[in-house]
Amino acid sequence: METTLVYDGTFDGFLTCVFMAYEMKLKAVSIVKEKHFQEPMFGNWDLVNTEPDKANRVWAGLKKKMSANELQRFYYAFLSEKPTVENTIYQAILYVFQSKNNVASDFGNVHILQLSKLTKNVSREKHRMEAFVRFKLTKDGIYFANIEPDFNVLPLIKKHFEKRYADQKWLIYDLSRKYGIYYNLESVELISLELDRNFDPSKTSTEFFAPIELEFQQLWQDYFKSTNIKSRKNMKLHIQHVPKRYWKYLSEKQ
C-alpha cells in the first residue's frame, strides 16, 4: 500500500521526506507539497516536519555518490516545480543509492534522464533572467525589478546580482510566487510584500518610481531606436534570442 508523505514545499522538507522513507522502510512512496495535497481514498499519509539535520544527512550521502555537477541537477530539477518532480527525484535517489558505482549520469534510466531535461530547462531560464532583468529606481532609492519566470529561479540568480550590483540596494520580486530577494548592501534576504493594488510593475509610474527613472527610460528607448537599422531587422532571429514573453521586462519594448 502506498504512503503519501506531505511536506512544506522546501528542498530541506523534501530531503526530510526521503530520509523518513528510508527510516520507515517504505516500499511505495509518493511525496507531495502540502498546498497540493488531497487526502487519498486508499493508502496512508503522513505530514512530515522539516528537519535540517535529516535533510543534510541525505544530501551528504548523495555527495559521496556523484560529482558536484551531477548533484546540482537534483536541486535544479526540484526548482522546476513540475507536479510530479518530487517522485522523479525520489526514484532517481533510490537508483543512485542502490548502485555501487556512480550512476548519476546514466541517462538510460528514465528518472535520471528526466532530471537532466528539467535541469536544462531551469538553467536556460536562470540565464535568461540574469540577462533580461531590468531595474527601476523607486522613490525609496531601491532598484526594483519584477519577474514571472516559468521556474523558481530566484535562489539561482541571487549570487549573480549580489556580485554585479554590490554597491546599490535592489529587490527582485517574483510576482507569480509572491516572494523576492532583497539586497541591503550587506546581504541578500528573502522577503514577501503586500503590493499596493494600484501598483502596476509594467508601468513606470511617478507614484512609485523616482522622476529621474522616467528620464532614463526615455533615454534608453531613444538610444535603442537610433541604433536600430530597419533594413537589417530580422524578427525571427530576434525572437529566437529574446522570446516575446520576456519583452515585458525590457524598457526598449514598452
Task: Put the structure in a nutshell.
The protein is of the alpha/beta class and 254 residues long.
> What distance separates the N and C termini?
55 Å
Radius of gyration: 22 Å
Q: Which structural class do the helices and strands define?
A: alpha/beta
Main beta sheet? 5 strands, mixed
Count helical runs.
Answer: 8
Q: In order across it, which strands form the biggest sheet?
A: 4-5-6-7-8
Beta-strand percentage range: 5-15%
Gross morphology: elongated
Strand segment count: 8
**Mean pLDDT across every amino acid position:** 89
In N-to-C order, the SSE pattern is: EHEEHHHHEEHEEEHH
Helical content class: 40-55%
Low-confidence stretches: none
Name some characteristics of this structure.
single chain; 254 residues; alpha/beta; five-stranded mixed β-sheet; three-stranded parallel β-sheet; 8 helices; elongated
Describe the protein's topology:
Elements: E1 3-7, H1 11-23, E2 29-33, E3 44-47, H2 52-63, H3 68-78, H4 85-98, H5 110-132, E4 136-137, E5 143-147, H6 154-164, E6 170-174, E7 179-183, E8 188-191, H7 211-227, H8 235-241
Parallel strand pairs: 1-2, 1-3, 5-6
Antiparallel strand pairs: 4-5, 6-7, 7-8
